[in-house]
Amino acid sequence: MKRILFLCPDNSLLSPMAQALARLYAQEDTLTYSAGLNAAEALDPRLASMLGELGLAPRIQAPQSLAEHADLRFDCCVWLGPQPPPSTGLNLDVQWILPDPSGLPDEAYRHFRDRLAERVRNLMNLFETELD
Hints:
Blueprint: E1 2-8, H1 14-25, E2 30-36, H2 47-52, E3 76-81, E4 94-97, H3 106-131
Parallel strand pairs: 1-2, 1-3, 3-4
Helix pairs in contact: 1-3
């Protein structure tokens, strides 16, 4: 089994969205995870509906911190956030500096989701090819 981790500041929006999208494109032998450097109180209120428009759902019910995955080893770690990540002790294979779309109108939020889906699809294609 291959494991990929999507990491963002608080696991409320960016990494759960990327994880849900990755599951759409991942092969059966790939497990996807999401975490935040710290866990937010709750998921972004529009995350479920925006993923639902694509027939997807968040894989987590509540934000999780990186510490909750400390016992796992990942084949690929992806940072998503508005700023470069602080030192985490992880080898971050991919860093996507992205704005937080939570305050955007619905159309801009959808546009962000769709652009992230393209990035995730390309990453998963590369990830599956490199590790096969």
